[in-house]
Amino acid sequence: MATFDIIPDILEVTLRDGSYLIDFQFTAEDTATIAAALEGIGFRWIEVGHGLGLNASQSGKGLAAATDEEYMGAAAQALKHAKWGMFFIPGIGREEDIRLAARYGMSFLRIGTNVTETAQAEPYIALAKELGLIVSYNAMKSYAVSPSEFGAVVAQVHKWGADIACLVDSAGSMDPDSVAEYLRAAKAESASPLGYHGHDNLSLAMANTLRAIEEGAVLVDSSLQGMGRSAGNTVTEVLVAILQRRGTLPHIDLKAAMDVGQGLIQPLLGKRGVDPMAVTGGLAKFHSSFTGKVQGYAHKHDIDVRDLIVRLCQEDQVSAPDELLERLSHELATLKMPRVLSIPAFRVETGKDKTSGESLDLLLKELRARAVKAGKFSALNVVAAEKALADFVVSGNIHSTQSHVVGSVALTSDQHLHAVLHAVDGKVDVVLLDVDRKPFGPTRPAETAAATLKKTALLTYLDSRVWVEAVEDQVVRLLSEVLNDSEIVIAGDHPRSRFLALRFAERGARVTLLQDPGQPPTAAPIAPMRMLSLEGEELKLSYMKADAGCGFEALSKANTVVVWPSGAPWFNQRFAKHLSGKTYVLDAGIGTILPDGITEAQRRGCLLLRVNIWPALTGSLSAAHESLMETTGALGWETLDGIPVVAGGAMGKSGDVIVDSVHHPTRIIGVCDGQGGVRFRFCDEETERVRRVQTEINRRLVAPQLTGTIS
User: Fold this and answer.
1) What's the pLDDT at 349?
2) Co-location of 395 and 531 in the same domain
3) For residue 473, what are the domain limits?
4) Mean pLDDT calculated for residue range 364-383
5) Model-level pTM?
6) What string of H, E and C letters represents the secondary structure of 145-213?
7) Are residues 582 and 455 in the same domain?
8) How many domains does the structure of the chain reveal?
9) Residue 285 pLDDT > 50
């Protein structure tokens, strides 16, 4: 039988039960990092893996971000002292899964069945004990039987060899008195050690856990920030704070637990979770009205504000005198207490070269994991390359915006496009497809994608336009939004550079476009460019040869130089030596400034940059996706309580009510004037129409589950 040296102790379940909240998207790296952090905090029992246990992904119970074996390897790599284990449900898990986990050095197995189906656990308890594992039997939905029947279940699994039996409040429906009744009944039937696992549906998880401890539970479950299925679990940070105030678990670093919960877990929960300052206040009996004042002293002395709060309240729980705060801050500063837990970095490598298909599969898994955890959309940018490729190329860069997590693939043939589209359909939310006409690009990319993608949304863009926008945006930001009379030189003449020159000139800049050396003389394109602008003759545009005296002079006057040749790179030392110090030099084509040109520009004190395509690309993605959702989710003509309503730009008849969405209306915008405009002052008849529509909207808002407006 297992011995529990520290009573009560905590089984930390963030990495298992917490995975429900992110659709089981903890990666192997997440598991290693968070498990190592939990061990560093002082936790001795750590559960990892799929929320539904071993073999759940393969059984169709939700595809996790990693395989069971990858989770096992991550835990085994990260943990040196703490015991780690996984969950097992008969009928989902298999014998071979338990044997595999044992080979990885797993310490404990939690076997869960419905409390009414305990017999299913017997052979697996025997196998786990044979393999030397500590076994916990989890009586799922324990409340489905009476306390005395639960006691009989505990006695039975104890005879079969289970080291501990766990009361499981799966629905979060129990209260402290019922927890006590069930645990007392179990103690009356056998000497089995007892545990407790609760959920917070009735906001009683903490109270129930504390009562379980008072009734003799030796091991209780909790998770950082309460992250867990349904309403969540008992909050680890709060439980530790309470137990430490009762004199137990002194080896656990409470501040580190709060830091890890806030830094690694809270970002996954949106606005849910617990505030470390609130926990500290409850622990120390600190009134939050003094928070700003105490934070000021902590910042001044470079100490952890939570340490200062605890020390302050040891001497004064009513006020926060300045002289006391100054003295305590000085004392804490001299102790040089550690402020941050050190967590090692982990990366799981496959150890072999990958094909393009394998690399794409890994990218799609990571995109989904990151997007789900951040509450964002996953997107794959599919761009046509400028040169022919033997196979599609998967970028190693993943970019995250406020709304999307974006990966990228480059390709140059219809065969590549078909392979990528079939691989990604249903694996990402959005495909952002480059439909520029390029020499090596697919022939009809939009049509191909529209016919192939069934589960993933399709958005298209022109890569050449986005590239121009990226260069423009980067220069505008560098020049702090003010381009009037700025001297900008674009070194390279081609359609995209001309378009860029026009955009700079329309912002008021003095723009010089340099013809590539070696190009045959051509007519200056300035006149046709002026014809494309409303500014016309007002634009300050010049055109000259790069390797002529006037070209060198333009370079010497420029505060910004954009290097963007039409063909092979040519911007070398010969041109760079004319640059002035502190000039921004932007490599717009990436790799288009020759090495001696870079060296000379740096020697002269220029500020060299390469174009960053991501802000413009993801800006186009966000705008297109927002437009798609507006078109499919808001646009249309409908009736609410018999009143015609329109939304999303749809034109209605005079008097029709305009709402924010025909499918999920939340507010009234105004009334149609019949010509595409909006009126905000209504006649009596229109006022009644608006009242009826708003009444219907209110009904749907307060009872969406009855009106079918929840998607």
Assistant:
1) 61
2) no
3) 466-612
4) 95
5) 0.83
6) CCHHHHHHHHHHHHHHCCCEEEEECCCCCCCHHHHHHHHHHHHHHCCCCEEEECCCCCCCHHHHHHHHH
7) no
8) 4
9) yes
